[in-house]
């Protein structure tokens, strides 16, 4: 423990407005830190640069006891936990409020590739993954070169760096052996919580969900590889395996604007129109309800950093079938069901053997037991992140 709480500045940059995974990640950081014992709990300052429409969905996070202050870009106080702090801030000119809190912070997080912050030891860097190194075919040469330049600029900074997996650390050492950062592996944890039977039934009726279905709540980006899952569903049907597939998530892939339309043209060719449905981008709470009602979760992605979907499934005890990636092995452990990336035949065979033993959806007792066990992981994650930041701060 220190004489005063550690002061952590979390920057909700405007780049997160179109990246739901980034917003969930930062909310998860706040949630696990809030779970720490009061004597150890840090003070979190939030710089809220999100558009109002996006920021409105986060107001519940601002009310967590761990959050001391939330400031808009112009210094407007969106939230303040106590009157004394508010009075101190109000005595400052609005443009000076952020500068003052930034100077007082022990850690400023996250600084990402492309951010133009000056080098400062209190800046904590974050790289979610090194996808462009593994899947260059999903980038134009111009995009790949620009991304690589941003990464190299960030990795030249002698600052602490958060990576979400040992697999990412291995990539850092392999692709950038001359990096100047101080890397740390920290596993973020899911925000998912059990929902009432009444709530689940309401969501089931609203979206007209079948009693038994597979679920993929991924954005329709090329590397998420919905095509392999769709083809596996067609193969499963050819051999008498009947089950629906429900998808959620945005359909735009800026790297390949025609991807979604081509994909669903194949759906028609495979005759899957009656058993495959895309609900679009729906509220996160509804996504979690669908996950709880699913017979099994599919994660067919060809690359992940540390999958939020996998964490959600683990947090709620939902069966999961995932691609055999090093990060998935690291994240799921020995109890997972894996298939080779892009192998529709292998996925179909795995589903054919697995599905007969699975209930339509998850029994409440199983969900509650999984959620209780997962709470310990959240507490450990918060303590681990605090330990890292305290060690760097004291060093």
Overview of the structural elements:
- This protein is of the alpha/beta class and 395 residues long.
- It has 16 helices and 14 strands.
- The protein folds into 2 domains: 7-189 and 375-394, 3-Layer(aba) Sandwich (Rossmann fold), CATH 3.40.50.2000; 197-373, 3-Layer(aba) Sandwich (Rossmann fold), CATH 3.40.50.2000.
- 44% of the residues lie in helices and 15% in strands.
- The strands form 2 sheets. An 8-stranded mixed β-sheet has the order 4-3-2-1-5-6-7-8, with helices on both faces. A 6-stranded parallel β-sheet has the order 11-10-9-12-13-14, with helices on both faces.
- The radius of gyration is 22 Å and the shape is globular.
- The protein starts with 6 loop residues before the first strand and ends with a helix.
- The mean pLDDT is 93.
On the 0-100 scale, what is the average pLDDT? 93
Uncertain spans: none
Beta-strand share of residues: 15-25%
Number of strands: 14
DSSP summary: helix tally: 16
Strand order in the largest sheet: 4-3-2-1-5-6-7-8
What's the CATH H-level homologous superfamily of the largest domain? Glycogen Phosphorylase B
So, CATH architecture of the largest domain?
3-Layer(aba) Sandwich
Task: Sketch the major β-sheet.
Answer: 8 strands, mixed
CATH topology of the largest domain: Rossmann fold
